């Protein structure tokens, strides 16, 4: 960092490091935890937090009416992301003074006092397994008052899912409820049958089978609180229709849980567009740069500009461009990194296309500390690409490719286009493996539709990556 220059220039690798390791979010988590927990020794408390494997653990509340599938979804979710499944019953099983006090109320068929119940939940969530792996609270809280008490105690979920279904469906499921006496898993005759015939044969009706009137009153009780709970958690809530196959319900819930809320951290877009010839990379890069004020960098145009400025590097690459030979990667990377390190790129961000074209170039770009934080593959079939490049035309004013209404035809033959396509497909699989979080967008649509798809992937944070369960 050079303190003698104005404005102050921060090395681009500092921003890359901060984004890669979520430094800003880490500070937010540490400060929030200090304010909520108010430890007697804040320094040691922060040291202990930083020693954890991960401070960004899932904190999920799964709510919904009776028979909406909460137990099934919660179990599958915990198995998938490795979190702790918390229910009212297993909270009471803890061997502690608080749980014994709560059991005295339940044995007398009395309601557990609110303050005691909140302390029980807080005690369970502060255990090492929940702190380290995160938690899924099933059917907790049940009321807005309980939700507000949890917030006052510092129990704040990152994601809240509320399942919903028509009352007729929920009543039918409740009446068809079955339990596996071996595992305790819950099944519904009309909703989720066990895949194993052996399990299906041993299913039993619940010992206390409730009537339709009781089920209806339970549903009414949930609906009275549902809207208040939705308002309480409106900033982190997703409502999911539970009147569909449980695998589809789970897929929607998991996608939401893996998503991350919009961050207030400083963010400099570094966008890489990849795709076959004719996929519209130049047009989409221009649209993105115009809307978001980014620097549009086409590697091919950059090389031509450097060759024309009569600099020492320009003189070196000019023979390659004039003869149609490939400019050595070392020269291209030197030119590209010099451009990406300029103040406009480091402060406004950039959208790059035309580089890298193979795995070696991608690795070299990564090692140069100018790695992209958004990668998009524009996908198009060879037939569409060939048609667009061989039958298209060039706008003499803007230089854009079109297929109608313009003055002169492109001079690329089908053989030339096929050669470029073969070169692209030869390396695309390796590039996709190198950028595993890249987004794929169909490019054989209206350009503005493609831009809308691109834009939706650029403004949201990347989803969390599931831990390796192997």
TrEMBL record:
The keyword RNA-binding does not apply. It comes from the Eukaryota. The lineage of its organism: Eukaryota, Metazoa, Chordata, Craniata, Vertebrata. Belongs to the adenylate kinase family. One of its GO terms (molecular function) is ATP binding. Keywords: Kinase, Nucleotide-binding, Transferase. It comes from Astyanax mexicanus. This is Adenylate kinase 8.
